[in-house]
Amino acid sequence: MTTAAPIVSLRGVSKVFPGRRGGTPVTAVDDVTIDIAEGEIFGVIGYSGAGKSTLVRLINALEIATSGTITVAGAEVTGQGERALRRVRAGIGMIFQQFNLMGSRTVAGNVAYPLRVARVPRAQRAARVAELLEFVGLTDKARAYPNQLSGGQKQRVGIARALATSPRILLADESTSALDPETTQDVLTLLRRVNAELGITIVVITHEMDVVRSICHRIAVMEKGKVVEVGEAYDVFANPRHPATARFVASSLHDVPSPAVLQRLRNRHPGRLVLLRMKSDGAASGYLTRTLREHGIEGTIIYGGISEIAERPFGSLTLEIDGAVDDVEAFVREVVASAGATDLGTASSPSSLPLLGRINGEESA
Ligand SMILES: Nc1ncnc2c1ncn2[C@@H]1O[C@H](COP(=O)(O)OP(=O)(O)OP(=O)(O)O)[C@@H](O)[C@H]1O
């Protein structure tokens, strides 16, 4: 945890839109309090309509909060006039799902545009554009037009343009949702460089947990306008506390058996099944081996694997436990209590499916 003042701070922020055609008002953001530390990649995840875009628009002062306070880079946004808001916006870069490039301008022209608006002299502008295009790997496309580029290249131009005026914060609203998985990874790698090499704080808005898993340091989960969970990405994945978070985690970790897979596992393996989710820090496998030995039983991994969360390994393992009934029972009780394992029961006496497995099976099928 950092002790520096947060670069973005929201305190009890709500945004209520008047109902369309006199209908019921919509509370798009509902009493949100979060701090985003300078230098972090902060993810905001939620289903469509959860209020993510409104939250971003509040941070860059395109919407004004109905109540609460918002501070960006030390300046309070709420209650400011248009001139002060323009200054706030100037310190924030923004990239979009549909890239929002100007089709009539070249790549260089698009990147130069914010510099023209900021009245940067021509020679300086050209030098800055060259530098930015080199950073995003598009030097050879300077004279190309957006319609001659792939989706990934367009988003690189979007990123170069967003960085042109050297913002301290970059807001990425569904910036990879229009891209295929491979291109998504390229763009995420570039965003990671923007963060690590330029020290820019990035706020990533997405409904894709894989995006969060691959680059975010911390995340907030939104549902119906509220932030229902916030924490280190790794911890949130390892131990989701809110059902909405559990659903997102399940959509991204494919090592948890779906109901159909679990049924097949049960048919093949008559013994007691246990699902262990563990941080792979070395201590975890030691714990498992030791606990099995202490109870005088054997465990075989029958499903699962190790994936990466925030660049650290994380394991979801389904084990079949063999041994005397009482010993197996004692082992299962211990790992459920001390390691948050899920008892899956046996084929003849199955325990109810774990939340993660059930939802994974339903939603990612
Ligand atoms: N200008 C507006 N006027 C009225 N209602 C709005 C307005 N903007 C957003 N809303 C409503 O606020 C709620 C949150 O919308 P928002 O776009 O912030 O959600 P989201 O999580 O970003 O979803 P999506 O990913 O679909 O954009 C929705 O119910 C939406 O219909």
UniProtKB/TrEMBL annotation:
Its keywords, alphabetically, are: Amino-acid transport, ATP-binding, Cell membrane, Membrane, Nucleotide-binding, Translocase, Transport
The residues covered by the ABC transporter domain are 8-249
Q: Which Gene3D superfamilies match?
A: 3.30.70.260, P-loop containing nucleotide triphosphate hydrolases
Please give the Gene Ontology molecular function terms for this protein. ATP binding; ATP hydrolysis activity
Q: Tell me the GO BP annotations in alphabetical order.
A: amino acid transport
Region annotation (Disordered) maps to 343-365
Q: Which CDD domains match?
A: ABC_MetN_methionine_transporter
Q: Name the SMART domains on file.
A: AAA, NIL
One Pfam family linked to the record:
ABC_tran
What is the designated name of this protein?
Methionine ABC transporter ATP-binding protein
Origin species:
Miniimonas arenae
